[in-house]
Amino acid sequence: MAKKFKITICSGTTCYVLGGAHLMMLAESLPADLKDQVEIIDSNCIKACQFENAQPPFVQINDYLMSQASVAKVVEYLRKH
Ligand code: FES
What we know:
By secondary structure, this protein is of the alpha+beta class. The protein has a single domain (5-80), classed as Glutaredoxin (3-Layer(aba) Sandwich), CATH 3.40.30. Helix content is 36%, strand content 22%. It contains four helices and four strands; from the N terminus they run βαααβββα. It has a four-stranded mixed sheet with strand order 2-1-3-4, covered by helices on one side. Strand 3 and strand 4 (64-66) form a beta hairpin. The longest helix is centred in the N-terminal third of the chain and has 11 residues, at 13-23. 17% of the residues are buried. FE2/S2 (inorganic) cluster (FES) binds at residues 10, 12-15, 45-49, 56, 58.
């Protein structure tokens, strides 16, 4: 069955240094019911950090680009969608 969410975690340098390192633990941190619904991909810089006023770290969830992403924010988002 296709996963409901495709999550791309930016592991580019800017994001990694500004908190992305925590996000690398996302897969292990997700509650079991959510884990079944997501596909997690690590990516090189997804270019979001190049925008003016960018607020890394970034995570892309399907079509939604989350700035200042954290494990807690991602879980909250998944619960609402
Ligand atoms: S390093 Fe993450 S968007 Fe560029």
